[in-house]
Amino acid sequence: MPRTARVQPGGYVFHVLNRGNAQMALFEKEADYAAFEKAMTESAARVGMRLLAYCLMPNHWHLVLRPHGDGDLGRYMHGLTTTHVRRWHAHRHSVGYGHLYQGAYKSFPIQADKHFLTVCRYVERNALRAGMVEKAEDWRWGSMGRRYQPDGDEDRPVLSPWPVDRLRHWRRLVNTPQSAKDLEAVRLSVRRGRPLGGEAWQARTAKRLQLESTLRNRGRPRKK
Q: Three-class SS of residue 65?
């Protein structure tokens, strides 16, 4: 990954995701995607959340968020998911018929440097990686489509400036497969719930956010 030119001050950035219960489809038609985006916009207006990147897929979604202060992430996600679940069930007349999500959302802090770009690239090429489009920007329900094919719809989420400079050839980069190393780094962060960044930053962040257990190797220690 090329080096970035400038890093701006600010709070933590988080990679946030959730999936439908038992791989249930969260979005079956365009109106479903639009309803979720509207809920994103409404929740952001209440909390003041900064949305940096996102991608909505049929049975899951990814968000890259930058809260202003402590507690903002929880307030934003509570408003977003409760609104989505309520409206989803009301539209289908299925209130009381089971859980929509597989569980609580997952969130992982990201260092605002090349690791941030790795995660945003991972998120924004999600539909392309799944073979749903020929180019990442062709997927309407994500930040690549918002950025490169804007439609002027005021109900759709507004993207905030990034904490690092976006590379000039970003579109070409997102449309190029990521290395196995980058993919494994993001997926390990998701599996373990660990911060994604350099070792020193990772250790400091894990300590501050009480995530030290995510850095330990799993399994029983070897016998000497």
A: strand
